[in-house]
Amino acid sequence: MSKRNLANPADKQQIVERLAKIQSSSPRLWGKMTAPQMICHLADSFRVTMGEKPWETARVSVTPIPIPDWFVKWVALDAPLRWPRGTPTRPEVDAERGGTAPGTFESDVRDLLCLLDHFTRQPRDFSWQPHPFFGAMTDAEWMRWGYLHTDHHLRQFGA
Known about the structure:
Elements: H1 9-20, H2 35-50, H3 55-58, H4 69-77, H5 105-120, H6 139-156
């Protein structure tokens, strides 16, 4: 059985359906961000990944980790573990510190869904930007990351 990823239409549809369950008032189960901030965080994460939010504006910096990149990437994308709760959000994609501030919730959700479609569209009309922890990644790794990152935040809000 393959690991869930956004290249699989059924997995992508599951994410879209779970996003539809989130309301602006949805309570978080952990962390500090609100549901509207989470929607903007996911959107900004896709924007930076696809180069839609320029590096100069996003100021995404590579985070040095004293562990080989391949091992960190394997643990995050392939190990049968859920991502840890409470990991600090990078300032560049944090609605309170440098990311996009929430606007109208419904509009922000529509923007996120458009970005999700763009992220998964074939053929691609953008070049992947390096991930701040994992560096360069393949299409398959990005599709896995996109699923896991979105899933992590949907679970944060009980969806």
